[in-house]
Amino acid sequence: MKRLYYLDYLKVVLTVLVVFHHAALPYSPGSEWAYATSHQEEMMPWIWHFLSTNAAFFMGLFFLIAIVASILSFLITWLIRMIPGVRRVI
């Protein structure tokens, strides 16, 4: 079976979003992060929109990719082992 490169690219983009998400947490107002800025100018109230949108989908999408890949892998393995002649087709 050929590798699905678009899933690799999607995982790379999601990983970059995770890094940006965690880097932006200290600068959001009301965050319970270990770092607290002493200058109010460093706080970015608009960053809440990025954080909430980002948190709404990135981990769920990671799990969806893992579930779909696991199910497809299981089905292909089952087909190869249980049905004679499928190995020649796949």
Radius of gyration: 21 Å
What's the order of the H and E elements?
HHH
- Cα distance spanning the termini: 7 Å
Average pLDDT taken over every residue: 80
Description:
The protein is an all-alpha fold and 90 residues long. The chain is 67% helix and 0% strand. The chain has 3 helices and no strands. The chain has helices spanning 5-24, 47-82, 86-89. The longest helix has 36 residues, at 47-82. It is rod-shaped, with a radius of gyration of 21 Å. The N and C termini lie close together (7 Å). 0% of the residues are buried. The mean pLDDT is 80.
Outline:
The protein is mostly helical. The protein has helices spanning 5-24, 47-82, 86-89. The N and C termini lie close together (7 Å).
Task: Give a topology summary.
Elements: H1 5-24, H2 47-82, H3 86-89
Helix pairs in contact: 1-2
Considering the chains and any ligands shown, give keywords for the structure.
90 residues; mainly alpha
